[in-house]
């Protein structure tokens, strides 16, 4: 596979991360470049694009967003001294 074909394939994956190896093969064939599905997968793996699909759902659900907002509004007037006694799980120092 030529460097130009690799760049073309990587640009296509950047535009649409959910594109399959079969679709990449077909799009390269339209450009008169014949490769196998496994070759496209190997080329993508060498360039740091692995066969993992991006997350389909948002990290926070509507319910979690509402609960966080409710918590923030309830604790709006809490003095800063109150927060010094809280054990934060995201603090690794």
Automatic annotation (TrEMBL):
Molecular functions (GO terms): DNA binding
Biological process annotations from GO: DNA integration; DNA transposition
Residue ranges constituting the Transposase Tc1-like domain according to the UniProt record: 6-77
Pfam families hit by this protein: HTH_Tnp_Tc3_2 (PF01498)
InterPro entries in the record: RNaseH_sf (IPR036397), Transposase_Tc1-like (IPR002492)
Protein origin, superkingdom: Eukaryota
Protein name, entry field: Transposable element Tcb1 transposase
Organism: Salmo salar
Gene (name only): TCB1
